[in-house]
Write a structure and sequence with these properties.
three-stranded antiparallel beta sheet; single chain; 75 residues; mainly beta
Length: 75
């Protein structure tokens, strides 16, 4: 749940090589964002959670891809 209670964000592990980050609107019950992290044959992903600002409008995911630190922001 985002801090502004307008959406829910999920992180789903499909395999050690692939995670999915999805955002759903709580007002319309529709998916508003979907992104795969990893997915390459040589990927080894470790992603734990989504961080957000205090307004619940900006988000960040930090993850490791086979030892390389990466940061993805959205919102």
């Amino acid at each position: 749940m985002t801090y502004n209670s307008r959406s829910a964000i999920t992180v789903t592990k499909a395999s050690d090589r692939e995670y999915w980050v999805k955002q759903y609107s709580l007002e319309s019950n529709q998916m508003t964002m979907e992104e795969m992290v990893g997915g390459e044959p040589d990927s080894y992903i470790k992603l734990k959670e989504v961080m957000q600002n205090k307004e619940g409008t900006q988000f960040a995911i930090a993850y490791l891809d086979d030892g390389n630190f990466k940061l993805r922001t959205f919102g």
